[in-house]
Design brief:
heterotrimer; A mainly alpha (525); B mainly alpha (643); C mainly alpha (99); A: three-stranded antiparallel sheet; 70% helix; 4% strand; C: 99 residues; mainly alpha
């Protein structure tokens, strides 16, 4: 019996393999490197690994082969399991950049008396002697770095998977480490653990739906490969019920990950409870990865059934924008407010997604969504990074009341945060405006007029709650003790600076990034 | 209506400029630089010189604008539209949005108005804000405003206009709330921002629709392609642009913010809420003439909005005791005139702009005069506490009187020429519109005379301990210049100069056949104005003015005092249901949330406060919502297939 | 033999699992219900593999088992920390984060 080894294109997959490799080495470091060196080794390893992966991504991007009619570039590798094409590489690059600046937040130790934001010993009970000891001995969980690397690897695999099974595995690889990361906060551990529990329970529940959807689609088409599914959908062989059920259940799993209503209910609780560095990372990167996968799955596999699923996405998009914008109005916790804001952004992204504009004239839906994801990612990480700076005796001061009068206390921090909020509200000359413009105009050209009108209407409502925080910071007097703004080390400073710079530059000169998104071309099939 | 397009709505086709005209970008760049320097360095570091820097940048822009204007004047009539490409904002494949400058007769007039009146008001503010600790910041914001406003009028496309549009909105918000230690100021600022956002929505949608229909948002492209679009698209475009204009120009139904905006420092009221920003709506309509010319629906809507606002504003102006609010009502009303004229199409565009300019002069003059009076009266704004001030502040009185004569349309003064033309054109269009405009003129005469008498004439009703004094030179010189302009503004109409000047932009109108000779209309207008003045004289000057506002008044007065129930309507329609929802929910964190946010947003917040209870904190209920969502998704998919 | 009974059975199992997640309070039981849902998926995958006569579905089922095992590790760790802190494994007790 002869054996034929599977053909793996190691070079093309190098970015992915580097990140997985770094994650595995990170686990070994935990086992073999002395405790006092681990922080340094792990953080440097993570940074170097991400930079290397980014370099590899750029190399892969320059080397994509043109296929077919030239609209799409790239190749299907690993025996058909992974598609390395323009959109994949674009998403990889974005994810790696955002992960890089998130690692800096993870490594920040200046804000809380020389300790990181992660629990000294997750196993120690909150409020016990053991916990205090862990704190005084300066213990910390350096496992967060390999966990994060695994999550990044999963996020990179998710939008690149060309096979429903790979997609499911990638979904789990990105989710499981995040569940754990959510529960590792040093302060407010009860909330953090609760966030982890909720995220885990609901995440597992929704991935059950996703998997059943995969099973149904497999039953419909007889294959888990996206190309084969596309062919079956096009020819409408097999049972219609299986296909529709499959699309619906897979959509549930996907929409859960992007935080679309009514699958958003985990977002505020988890974003609030998780350590802020983790919130920043997952708010930005999970959404990007999940949207990448959503686009690939629905454009490639279910593309010819678009008449079936567009009304459903319309409903979800409207609901998502409404829930995000309206619920955010009455929030009193800054992280919860930003969580609802990210729900609203998911809604705007869905508007771009469902515009289904092919490009040609103007800007294609894929291009606009990819661009929006970049703008969203940088402003989100930047905004959450600023949240880590405003502190009182009990850690971060997240209640909005504590932010009153920040404009007088620290004009710089308040100014930067106000800028991020204006960007999220979509004021011109910020990336938020260019992103919204791209998404809305592609949707309008795709003919989704009513949706665009509703989106514009709700973005006005959304502007109101961002404004509320600005009013609070500048036009109100501090209540009780003024909040203190901690001086961060170079790490958080760099993160905020990069977030700010990206938000400004993408607002003034979006051209190059829009070009990159256009160069990414279509998905290969 | 069958107008041949080439005559009615000229296509925008700019040529390139040389000499000073290639330096046009400096006009908005200078104030922007001033704002940047002042705001980045901060109030403390710049306070010794910020006011002079701010004034100098705007004055320099004015000089460049003046030279450019004469260059343009020297060009051929067909060659008076100068384009300058600055920067490609978006570029992705076939998708490009350029930002550039369009300097044509229309924008040249606006540049002169903005930088000219702007310099004077900057100068005035040096004195007016002398004792304010945050004066440098004030000048930073003021420069930011001027820069944004110049971007608005100099842009060669709708996206650029939108950029300036948002910029002036932001600056206006910052300036209204400048004295944010006053809670009324903070609330007014928020209200202005929110109402303006509603208008901005019209702008965003219009721009998106243009982009989707024409594939471009530049004036050049849109004016070329507009005639090819469907009638429905054009109607919707016109209405969306009108919505935008209503928000910015405080026209009914988005008028409510302007009266509250008077909480800002008086120079702000003069510059932003009288002379320039609030006229941006008129600019937008006139600039979009190539769209409005193609849609009768759009123009009719503009006329109706203008007519309603001009009457509503005038009535509100009659009942206000706050001198600035009375003037604000008058601003609404005068912009109503401009809107009305703009809605009349080719015949009216030039007169709308003419009135806009003269109004910019006399209203800025009167607002600054009001500021000077307030300065003298220890910042009291209640006219019932004024009286007999003509001796105490003679320069202010004389300059204010010039503005007064101009606004009521005293023959020979600038307002006389501009308003008379609008009323005449309105009669040419329809009797009813003409009558509304005429009635407005009468009411204007009434409330302005009332304001004059209550402030400067009659007996002293001063608060104890107030010792009025004339303002310093730095404040009176701008007053004098503006007063001169209020008197002489009418020269622009000499030999129909302004009409000819604007012809390349808005087209030329064939002369209307009026049922009566022109002189008859003029006489009628003057007679109506005289009646208004006389009534005011009899009702106000002949009687004693009580220091407290009388409560036993007619329904009309009560309605007018309540801004014609504009806020009450907002409240009944939006806030009450929201508040009722909230009541009974004891746990609602109202001591904080409500303390911060009240007013217009209450409805949405109330809803939000109710709905957020859905987020119970129980993971099982979240799972239920996921489950319900799954059902929703399945049903939506099935419904499509069955239906 | 018809494939339908197997699919119906898997749908019933999936529903039982789903309803269990909605109704049970004990985190461990909720978690077991999620596992039941995953196993229902496995049954469906294996059945469809037989229907189509290829191995994709069966391979997928193995992957799902591995993933489920990994999920157990993470899930039990989280439930354990919550239990140690609160002395209760009821998911309803963890409801500090709300509104």
């Amino acid at each position: 019996m002869s054996f034929e080894a599977p053909h793996i294109e190691y070079a093309t997959l190098s970015p992915l393999l580097i990140v997985f490799g770094v994650a595995l080495v990170g686990v070994l470091v935990e086992a073999f490197v002395p405790r006092r060196l681990r922080y340094l080794v792990q953080s440097v390893l993570a940074l170097v690994g991400l930079v290397a992966a980014l370099a590899a991504t750029i190399w892969v991007a320059t080397d994509l082969t043109v296929r077919g009619d030239g609209a799409a570039r790239g190749s299907i590798v690993a025996e058909g399991a992974i598609a390395v094409d323009g959109p994949s590489v674009f998403v990889w690059g974005t994810l790696l950049l955002l992960s890089l600046i998130s690692v800096l937040l993870f490594a920040e130790r200046h804000l809380d008396g020389g300790l990181s934001a992660f629990a000294g010993q997750a196993a120690a009970l909150p409020g016990t002697e053991a916990e205090r000891q862990a704190s005084t001995r300066g213990l910390e969980h350096t496992e967060v770095y390999p966990l994060m690397m695994f999550a990044v690897a999963g996020m990179m695999l998710f939008p690149a998977s060309n096979d429903l099974l790979t997609m499911f595995v990638a979904l789990e690889i990105l989710s499981l480490p995040l569940y754990l990361l959510c529960g590792l906060a040093r302060r407010r551990r009860l909330l953090s653990q609760e966030a982890a529990l909720k995220y885990f329970m609901l995440g597992a529940f929704s991935s059950g739906f996703f998997l059943y959807g995969v099973a149904l689609v497999y039953g419909f088409s007889g294959s888990t490969h996206l190309a084969a599914i596309a062919e079956a959908v096009n020819g409408r062989i097999g049972g219609q019920g299986l296909l529709l059920g499959g699309i619906a259940l897979i959509a549930v799993g996907m929409l859960f990950k992007v935080g679309a209503a009514p699958f958003h209910s985990w977002t505020p609780d988890v974003y609030q409870g998780a350590p802020t560095a983790v919130t920043a990372f997952m708010a930005a990167c999970t959404k990007i990865a999940a949207f990448g996968a959503l686009l690939r799955l629905f454009y490639v596999a279910f593309g010819s059934a678009e008449r079936d699923w567009t009304p459903m996405i319309w409903i979800v998009a409207i609901l998502t924008m409404a829930v995000g914008s309206v619920f955010a109005l009455s929030q009193t916790d800054i992280k919860r407010m930003l969580a609802y804001s990210s729900v609203a952004h998911a809604g705007f992204l869905l508007v771009g997604f469902v515009g289904l504009h092919e490009g040609g004239e103007g800007i294609s839906s894929l291009q606009s969504v990819l661009f929006y994801l970049v703008t969203y990612g940088f402003m989100t990480v930047g905004a959450f990074a600023v949240v880590t700076l405003v502190r009182d005796a009990g850690g971060e001061a997240n209640h909005l009341a504590r932010w009153a009068g920040l404009g007088k206390e620290s004009p710089l921090v308040a100014g930067i945060f106000a800028f991020f909020l204006l960007a999220m509200a979509g004021i011109p000359l910020t990336s938020g405006f260019t992103g919204k413009w791209a998404v809305f105009s592609s949707a309008a050209q795709g003919g989704a007029w009513p949706l665009v009108v509703i989106a514009v209407l709700l973005s006005v409502v959304a502007a109101f709650f961002y404004l509320r925080v600005i009013v609070l910071m500048y036009f109100s007097d501090p209540v009780g003790d003024a909040p203190a703004v901690a001086v961060p080390s170079i790490l958080t400073t760099v993160t905020i600076a990069i977030g700010l710079a990206a938000t400004v530059v993408l607002g003034i000169l979006p051209g190059p990034v829009l070009d990159l998104a256009a160069d990414a071309g279509a998905f290969i099939r | 209506m069958n107008i041949s397009l080439s005559e009615a709505a000229p296509v925008v086709s700019p040529t390139s400029g040389d000499g000073v005209l290639s330096l046009l970008w400096l006009i908005p760049a200078l104030p922007a630089l001033g704002a940047l320097v002042i705001l980045v360095l901060g109030n403390r570091r710049t306070s010794p010189w910020a006011h002079w820097l701010g004034t100098a940048t705007v004055a320099l822009s004015f000089l460049i604008g003046l030279v450019a204007f004469f260059q343009l004047l020297g060009r051929d009539e067909s060659d008076r539209s100068v384009g300058q490409h600055l920067w490609t904002w978006f570029e992705a494949g076939s998708f490009t949005v350029d930002l550039g400058i369009l300097y044509d007769p229309l924008s040249s007039l606006f540049v002169l108005l903005i930088t000219g009146v702007g310099s004077l008001i900057h100068l005035y503010s040096v004195g007016y804000m002398a004792h304010d600790a945050a004066r440098a910041r004030f000048f930073g914001y003021l420069n930011l405003f001027v820069a944004a406003m110049l971007v608005l009028v100099l842009s060669d496309g709708y996206l650029g206009v939108f950029l300036g549009w948002e910029g002036v909105g932001l600056a206006s918000y910052l300036l209204i709330g400048f004295w944010h230690h006053k809670p009324t100021a903070a609330t007014a600022a928020k209200k202005a921002f929110v109402v303006n956002r509603v208008g901005d929505m019209g702008m965003v949608l219009a721009t998106t629709l243009m982009f989707a229909t024409f594939g471009t948002v530049s004036f050049e492209g849109v004016s070329e392609l507009a005639s090819g679009a469907s009638q429905t698209t054009l109607n919707i475009l016109a209405l969306l642009l009108l919505l935008a204009a209503c928000g910015k120009s405080a026209q009914v139904p988005l008028q409510s913010w302007l009266l509250d905006a008077m909480e800002g420092p008086t120079p702000v009221s003069a510059l932003i809420h009288a002379a320039t920003m609030v006229t941006a709506g008129v600019y937008l309509v006139v600039r979009s003439n190539f769209i409005y010319e193609l849609t009768e629906v759009g123009r009719t809507a503009v006329v109706i909005v203008g007519a309603v606002t001009l009457l509503a504003g005038a009535i509100i102006g009659c009942a206000k005791d706050d001198i600035k609010k009375a003037l604000a009502g008058s601003t609404m009303s005068q912009i109503g005139y401009m809107m009305l004229a703009a809605g009349l199409g080719v015949a009216g565009y030039a007169f709308a702009i003419f009135h806009l300019l003269t109004h910019g002069f006399f209203k800025a003059n009167m607002f600054l005069g009001a500021g000077s009076v307030m300065h003298a009266m220890d910042d009291d704004v209640n006219m019932r506490h004024y009286g007999a001030l003509q001796k105490a502040v003679p320069v202010t009185f004389l300059t204010f009187a010039m503005g007064y004569l101009a606004i009521i349309g005293f023959p020979g003064f600038s307002g006389f020429w501009s308003k008379d033309k609008i009323i005449e054109t309105a009669f040419g269009e329809s009797l009813w519109i003409g009558l509304a405009a005429l009635a407005g003129a009468g009411i204007t005469a009434f409330y302005m005379t009332r304001l004059m008498i209550m402030t400067f004439l009659g007996r002293k009703r001063w608060e104890p301990g107030v010792h009025p004094h004339e303002s310093p030179k730095v404040m009176t010189i701008p007053l004098i210049v503006l007063a001169a302009l209020s008197v002489l503004g009418g020269v622009l109409l000499l030999g129909d100069w302004i009409v000819d000047w604007l012809t390349p932009v808005v087209g030329h109108a064939e002369h209307h056949e009026l049922p009566l000779p022109v002189i008859a209309y003029t006489l009628i207008v003057v007679a109506v104005v005289a009646v208004g003045v006389a009534v005011a004289w009899l009702l106000v000057a002949k009687r004693d003015i009580p220091r407290e506002a009388p409560q036993k008044v007619s329904f009309v007065t009560r309605a007018a005092r309540a801004d014609l129930y504009g806020d009450a309507a907002n409240e009944a329609l939006l806030m009450r249901p929201g508040n009722n929802l909230v009541e009974g929910l004891v746990t609602f964190d109202d001591d904080y949330v409500d303390g911060v946010v009240d007013g217009t947003g209450s409805a949405a917040i109330g809803m939000s406060g109710t709905f957020r209870r859905i987020q119970t904190g129980y993971v099982r209920s979240y799972a239920l919502s996921v489950f319900a969502g799954a059902l929703l998704v399945v049903l939506a998919l099935l419904a499509v297939n069955l239906g | 033999m018809e494939a339908e009974p197997f699919i119906v059975l898997s749908a019933i199992l999936f529903t039982i699992g789903g309803v269990g997640v909605l109704t049970r309070r004990n985190a461990i039981v909720v978690f077991m219900c999620v596992e039941l849902m995953l196993n229902a998926c496995n049954l469906a995958l294996v059945t469809f593999a037989r229907v189509h006569g290829n191995l994709d579905g069966q391979v997928a089922a193995f992957f799902v088992m591995v993933v489920a095992a990994a999920e157990v590790v993470v899930g039990l760790a989280i439930i354990m920390t919550i239990f140690r802190t609160r002395r209760s494994a009821s998911v309803d007790d963890a409801s500090l984060l709300k509104y």
